[in-house]
């Protein structure tokens, strides 16, 4: 038991320690060293080492920013001033505590545009950063930025891929938007694809992949072009569908579930020449943003993905141009000032050469058949950019593009025994294309408020005309059948978007819009002018439906805590069609958390709604699918998607690894009942031949990138499942979706050799897609058509379960080599490429054919697009 004297000594010791801990003043010398730690860590160190207690409200004082502090033996007051002053934090001693508050220091807002110093081209996604305050922001889709700073800030730094870093000194009296010109570097840094989730903390983007013009140029230049859509298709979670189909399938969704925007205007078909080219000329693409989840609230109307492509504005200072000619196509582009520093223009055009692929598109082995095919495409872009004032800019752009496929064949059959001879010839023309026009007005209301007003029109159409002549031998009767068919969808959009940046850690976006959809699903005209046949002239399906869509959205990009960033939003919309009214509230959430050692966690939840449907004929690979609106019996589609991922970037940014999982449900998706075809689906009663059901998709995506060095590229792997369930299809049983592919692997490599050569290769592998096959067949009942040859007895097939079988796997290697040399007045380049380098015969479609000699039926695979060599010569001046 402790003596009385011992208790006395212990009490005096405790009092001594307390007094010593509280015996500090402003002259007390302290030392604190931290590296990349929260400001709160500094307070904890001072409290533990010197007994200095801090009192503050977390709702008022933010101690989460990371700091680098190196204070060595300095007076306490001077040390605290050095530590807290950059963060606008005031401190005062009250008793034995230091109370922290926020200074009422005046602030000011800097806003303006970041642009190319030579051409005046606005730079999208440029970084604006204050190293003193460790806060920053990025430029929006029009190169505009806004950042609020305390008055004692030293300055701002501006950076962008491929440009020298710029600096803006503090100018507190500046009220008008400033222009920040950045000088292009002589050579672009070796970065191919920038995943914004691994960029600086101020880049608040979730599930967004940004593809810059520099990244597009670094992709394999197949057939003379480095295509932005080819870059997107090579990413995990994305598939291009069948060889030659040219569609986009994202996370188990169908092609109609992708919102693809060209300068803010929707494009309904994005491929040329059976997917070899896209409608986006790479020479004029400035930037592309791709979302496959965590969709920002400003986007709506689709379920699976967003592709937002911005075109160059045109050089404000000098005239420039590019031209190229190759074995497949030729193109040209010119840009320059109409009035220097105020108005610019850009115009481009492309066209394929006639006859280049004629023998490839149609490859028939039918006896006694002489067939020919002719295919081509063209497109053109125009853009005008005018500056009215530092606060007002106007953009006018237009696009037109078309593909054409003509097929002709002749058939002859001599009299042989009981078979009656005949002669027949046929001609078919297929046309499809897009028209778009866009008018945009940007207005800067003030340093913190930016607005964009958009009006646009877009149209997609498909048409075919055909003529068939049939003449039996030794008979006066003939059949002359002709007809045409066309389908069209039109969109007219009016929209206003606002962007408000009250603080660097907050960006608030909101807006509203109205869309008029005009649907003409299918109009058919049929005529029979043959001798011996009654005259027939029929037109049906000539009806149009108008749908009115209204939308309203709001979203907040918020740096909530030290390592936590959030994107919160809501999208509301309504749709009125044929007296039927639908509405939808769609919440959006994206979250990103920064872990130590450059690890990042990210998660999202999105609810998407879609009022448009696509009637798709699974057996067709031409763009014959029909766009239709929601109706009384076919409700709008909606999806719910959740995703979670983790990513890691190496210390010096050389390598990046990302892994993401997702689960998505889709309601009110549609499917043809039985074997209905697109051409029979025209008319006002289309909803009577479809079934409405549910879809589901889930999987994982892995991507490893090498982003620097002379060798760069990525490996992407997807493991995915996708299925559909309909009450009256496949007896109500769930079946794999048409493009359910279990495994998908993409390898993209680019290698620089010296100053002039660049080699690139892209290899892809995908599991076979589902296929429905007949399990039995029998002769049809009834007389054959008088226009069919007598030996063609009708055979009816009994189909098995939907998508029970699988096609052969698809794989292909594309390679290219580009030689570039800079001359005094221009730069020339030669590109040598091989599409499908080892001539893999991937399936285009399957058909049931008959071997008449063996009297056997068999499954025949039809392949197109074999090895395609190309040489392209290009100049840039």
Secondary structure layout:
Blueprint: H1 4-22, E1 29-38, H2 39-50, E2 53-55, E3 66-75, H3 76-84, E4 89-94, E5 97-102, E6 107-116, E7 127-130, E8 135-138, E9 144-150, E10 155-159, E11 166-169, E12 178-182, E13 194-195, E14 208-212, H4 213-217, H5 228-233, E15 238-239, E16 249-250, E17 258-262, E18 265-266, E19 271-272, E20 277-278, E21 285-291, E22 305-311, E23 320-326, E24 329-339, E25 343-352, H6 358-361, E26 369-389, E27 392-413, E28 422-446, E29 449-472, E30 479-503, E31 506-528, E32 536-540, E33 545-561, E34 564-577, E35 580-594, E36 599-610, E37 612-615, E38 626-629, E39 637-649, E40 655-672, E41 690-706, E42 711-725, E43 735-736, E44 743-753, E45 757-766, E46 770-771, E47 774-779, E48 795-799, E49 805-806, E50 810-822, E51 827-835, E52 845-851, E53 856-862, E54 868-876
Parallel strand pairs: 2-5, 6-12, 17-22
Antiparallel strand pairs: 1-3, 4-5, 6-9, 7-8, 7-10, 10-11, 13-14, 14-21, 15-16, 17-18, 19-20, 21-22, 23-24, 23-54, 24-25, 25-26, 26-27, 27-28, 28-29, 29-30, 30-31, 31-32, 31-33, 33-34, 34-35, 35-36, 36-39, 37-38, 39-40, 40-41, 41-42, 42-43, 42-44, 44-45, 45-50, 46-49, 47-48, 50-51, 51-54, 52-53
Short description:
The protein has six helices and 54 strands. 6% of the residues lie in helices and 56% in strands. The N and C termini lie far apart (97 Å).
